[in-house]
Amino acid sequence: MTLTVDAVYDGKVFLPIETIQLEPNTRVRLTIRSDGEFVTATEARRAANRAFLGDFVGTALSSATPIWSDGPQPHWKVPYHFFDGTLFVTISVDARSANVWLNAQERDALITRLAAALDARYAIT
Amino acid sequence: MPSPNLISHVTQYADGYCLAACAEMALVQLGFQVQQQQLATLLGVRPGLGTRFSNIQALARYGIDLHIISWQGADSLKTALEAPSCVVITAILTTPGLLGWGELATQHAVVLTEITPPFAAYHDPALPTGPVQASLEEFLLAWSEMDEMAAILRRT
């Protein structure tokens, strides 16, 4: 699970400014980014991988170096290629929040489309 | 029980079968002989698509003790590797620093056998032989890209 939340540092601990649905003492990893600072290409790719593929392993898809896209909503475009180099999809990641522009419904549809494409490529007789 | 360093290498049947191949290596080490295709069915593997790492939990049907961990740090792996009759399967994102992957950045599973700084040794089922070695730093980076997920399997 990956969450992006705003927080305030009070000198000792980080206080989230919104409610987080986690059990007390759950261990998590924090990535600290100041307000206004853009996420790095590595962070964008990580966010896209988690939102799109989650904990899938063995998927014959490779994420490439994210491409910067400027404009009113700066974002990173993370390309995903099949192992033969054919582009499957590009996923956008907000450069300020690291939010991935992919909702649950779109993600499910994408996985279904990916499964169909890979079934065609890897049909084992 | 043989040392984890003596795990017999198994090659994955096809793209998508990395977790099934890791499961086969782990089960052999724990005393079970199960065909990779059978494990692939159990784990919900689809050729090319793979499966969810958390599906490894299905191996509990063999009566083994199985825990999936996340963000527990490298010490948790070292501790598991030092324990008797214990096998560690990790999820990684492949990097150019890991043998055989070049520029492909893909979500994968390997059987970890040793952490001896500055190196880590593991069986990568996509490679024809194993174990292979990588710098510990590179391996931990690849592992952290998958939320430091690992499955720790023990014979009960």
Portion of residues within helices of chain A:
10-25%
Largest interface: A-B, 28 and 32 residues
Query: What share of residues of chain B is helical?
Result: 10-25%
Distance between the termini of chain A: 36 Å
Q: CATH H level of chain B: which superfamily?
A: Cysteine proteinases
The CATH topology of chain B: Cathepsin B, Chain A
> Strand-residue fraction of chain A?
15-25%
Number of domains of chain B: 1
Number of strands of chain B: 7
Helix/strand order of chain A: EEHEEEEEH
Poorly predicted spans of chain B: none
Rg calc of chain A:
17 Å
Strand arrangement across the biggest beta sheet of chain B: 2-7-3-4-5-6
What is the typical, i.e. mean, pLDDT of chain A?
A: 89
The top level CATH class name of chain B:
Alpha Beta
Secondary-structure-based class of chain A equals: alpha+beta
Cα-to-Cα separation, first versus last residue of chain B: 13 Å
Rough outline of chain A = globular
Run of helices and strands of chain B: HHEEHEEEEHE
- The count of DSSP E runs of length 2 or more, i.e. the number of strands of chain A, is 7
Largest sheet of chain B: 6 strands, antiparallel
